[in-house]
Structures are given as structure tokens and as C-alpha cells.
From TrEMBL:
Protein name: Glycoside hydrolase family 5 domain-containing protein
Keyword Hydrolase: yes
Pfam families: Cellulase
The keyword Hydrolase belongs to this UniProt entry's keyword annotation: yes
Lineage: Eukaryota, Viridiplantae, Streptophyta, Embryophyta, Tracheophyta
């Protein structure tokens, strides 16, 4: 290996280390301050721009249990989010989790069993034993808290109203007034989630709804 190539390799190593240092510094700084907006930018308390690098993590499917808890411990998943270069998770949920007490009070074990997911129950018992006896809403909160312990910001994302896969034009979850999309219930659910997480420092925002869609879309309701 010649001197020129050695210099180039050394420079690449220095740049890589500098980039990692910058990423780690920005990651820690974003979690340490209160965020706000300035024009089109998200900024910290000093007015410096903060860039959100978010990854989706679904919790809106029929069991209303965060996906992957049967695969790896939630702490391991949270750390992998950071290791992959993300500083934020878009954590999805159905409005029913925030408005339907008969659903949100089910335990993770009860919900998984109700959907015939015996193998998942066994897997969660191995990887996240403490979650099985948590209610669905407490399990959701526990995921948020674990992300916070790993300095990961969270965007609470209302994906659907009725738990289930998203999205199709005829799933009843698409537009205001659809079968499962009651605007008043939706607003109440958003309010309930905002209240529940008001004092949780790593929750930095809410996504009000995912992909308004379907044959009932119209400009009058869009701009009401």
C-alpha cells in the first residue's frame, strides 16, 4: 500500500469518525431540549435546526400490539433504531386504543390469544415477558418509554380508527364520515393521546391521520 493510498484511507477514517461524532452529538442534543417551529423548520431552544430522521414502527394492526415484540426485546429494537442512524420513531396506533376502554384495557396476552396468535404469545414470553400482563395502552406507553430511555424521539401517528391493515379505499377508515371514521371520536382520541403523553419528554409531535383517501373525498369536507 503506497503513501498516497494510506493518506486517503486515513482521511476516510477521520471523516467517518467525524460524521459519527456529529450524528451522536445531534442525536443527544435533539433529546435534551424542547422543540418548536420557526417558519418551515423544527428548531431547538437556541433556534438551531433539528432534523428528524424517523422510522415507522406499527402498532395499529388488529391485536394493537407493537410489532416485533415476539422477535426481540424492546430495548434491543430501540437500540437498533439508533444504531441504524435514526433519532425518531413514527409509532402508529388506532383511534380505538384511545377511545374504546373495552379494547385498551385488554392485556397483551388477551389480545394476542383473541386473534389466535399462540406462537406470538410464546415468543413475547421469551423476549418481552413483562409485556404480556400489561394492558394494550400501557404496553404502548412502555414502548414509548423504552425509546425515550434510548434517546429516541417519538411521533404519535394515528394511522386508522378501527385496528387493522392500512390502506385501501373501502376499509371504512379512509375519510371523514366513513364507517369507522367518526370525526368527533377521532378528535376525542387525539385529545386523549395528547393528554396521556403530555409529560413524556421524548414525544415531540403527533401525526393527526395517515392517508386520507377513498371515494367519499371531497373538497368541501377537506376545507371545512
Amino acid at each position: 500500500m503506497g503513501p498516497s493510498l494510506l493518506r486517503r484511507v486515513a482521511l476516510c477514517v477521520v471523516l467517518a469518525c467525524a460524521c459519527q461524532f456529529y450524528h451522536d452529538r445531534e442525536h443527544r442534543r435533539a433529546m435534551a431540549v424542547t422543540l418548536s417551529t420557526s417558519s418551515r423548520w423544527i428548531v431547538d431552544e437556541a433556534g438551531r435546526r433539528v432534523k428528524l430522521a424517523c422510522v415507522n414502527w406499527p402498532s395499529h394492526l388488529e391485536p394493537v400490539v407493537t410489532e416485533g415484540l415476539g422477535r426481540q426485546p424492546v430495548d434491543v429494537i430501540s437500540k437498533k433504531v439508533v444504531a441504524m442512524g435514526f433519532n425518531c420513531v413514527r409509532l402508529t396506533y388506532p383511534i380505538a386504543l384511545a377511545t374504546n376502554a373495552s379494547l385498551s384495557s385488554l392485556t397483551v396476552l388477551q389480545s394476542l390469544r383473541a386473534h389466535g396468535l399462540a406462537e406470538t404469545v410464546a415468543a413475547v414470553e421469551v423476549n418481552n415477558l413483562g409485556f404480556l400482563d400489561l394492558t394494550l395502552v400501557d404496553a404502548f406507553r412502555a414502548v414509548v418509554d423504552k425509546l425515550g430511555e434510548n434517546d429516541v424521539m417519538v411521533i404519535l401517528d394515528n394511522h386508522v380508527s378501527k385496528p387493522g391493515w392500512c390502506c385501501s379505499d373501502d376499509d371504512g377508515n379512509g375519510f371523514f364520515g366513513d364507517q369507522y371514521f367518526d370525526p368527533d371520536v377521532w378528535v376525542q382520541g387525539l385529545s386523549n393521546m395528547a393528554t396521556l403523553f403530555a409529560d413524556v419528554p421524548n414525544v415531540v409531535g403527533m401525526s393527526l391521520r395517515n392517508e386520507l383517501r377513498g371515494p367519499r373525498q371531497n373538497t368541501e369536507d377537506w376545507y371545512r
